[in-house]
Amino acid sequence: MIGIILGTRPEIIKMSPVIRECERRGLDYFILHTGQHYSPEMDRVFFEELELPDPDYNLDVGPGTHASQTAKIMTGVEDVLMKESPEIVLVQGDTNTAMAGALAASKLHVRVGHIEAGLRSFNRQMPEEINRVLIDHISDYLFAPTENARKNLISEGIEGSKICTTGNTIVDAVYQNLEISKRKVNVLKDLDLKPREYFLVTAHRQENVDNRGRLKEILKGLESVQKEFSMPVVFPVHPRTEKRIKELGIGVNGLNLTKPFGFLEFLQLESQARLVLTDSGGVQEETCILGVPCATMRYDTERPETLDVGSNILVGADSTSILAGVRAAATRESGWMNPYGDGIAGKMIVMVCAAARSR
Ligand code: UD1
Ligand code: UDP
């Protein structure tokens, strides 16, 4: 039996190819949702659009401080694992869900597979960096998306025999859903947008939006991009960011703020944008895969492959550098290579897990 642990928007999306493959092979598995994300637009919509089976368990942990959220997840995961006794547990990425799930499993001597292992921003101010390092060092199977990620693991002393370089499951998810999105949704028409004549934005990193000065600078930078290019700036607002913008009590001029989109809608918006501004990990990867320029509103990234191939630039989080970065990147020609694999990561991961169960 394989236990799949997830709890946030990116985990549902990036686990979807793994879940589909488990279904296709008729494997014995269960889905444990921690409930870290719970609003319908951050959770339910992805199960529906991606046609995923409902989770077998939902811990409903909701928001909290890092310690309280982590503790609730660990306790809930432990209960389920003691009941189900899986041979292997899979976690994805760098969230509190992934870290607490991996730690609870490892203490019960259940083998842990970490999908998207080996990413490093080398910035311990990010809660995600702490989670990544911890998960990698307690995992038994490390599914590294790229050669660079594999090297990071090796340089930290992790045995090469535990690492399998698979590509990133986001490539599978993009390939599997782009055509479906073309058939099922027409979000440009709905929002009255023309291809390549709008910018798309996402921002939710704790270090960006929980700092009032930094959030103000980001919003100012986005407003100046809208003014300079006279193009719509579409900004689906993450709930964390929505809360912080409300607290700031400032008006946001010229930006099209919306609720978060479903994956099919967002993928379509991304694929037709002139450029995407973001601080998201997944969005840096997706733009690279889709051939759309990306400006990342951060000072470092755990996705250096996107900088190397030229799809992405780091523009920081002050208004002047955001505008300058967009000026430089908006005219970039795509045609770079996709460093994240050829869309079979989910299959490879499930193959390794299926073989591991009997060991
Ligand atoms: C979490 C992950 C982050 C990931 C992101 C994906 C950690 C430490 N952070 O950040 O790595 O990039 O998910 O989006 O695990 N909220 C809602 N509805 C929801 C979810 C959250 O209203 O469905 C609000 C709550 O007020 C909550 C806040 O957003 O306090 C932050 O949510 P949380 O899950 O703690 O962190 P994220 O910023 O979503
Ligand atoms: N996404 C979405 N709707 C939106 C914004 C993002 O479906 O309105 C998807 C996006 O395609 C990507 C994922 O959410 O696959 C990224 O999640 P997020 O930015 O929340 O987390 P991160 O990748 O930074 O951990």
TrEMBL record:
The lineage of its organism: Archaea, Methanobacteriati, Methanobacteriota, Stenosarchaea group, Methanomicrobia. It comes from the Archaea. Transmembrane segments: none annotated. It comes from Methanoculleus thermophilus. This is UDP-N-acetylglucosamine 2-epimerase (Non-hydrolysing). Residues 21-352 form the UDP-N-acetylglucosamine 2-epimerase domain. Coiled coil: none annotated.
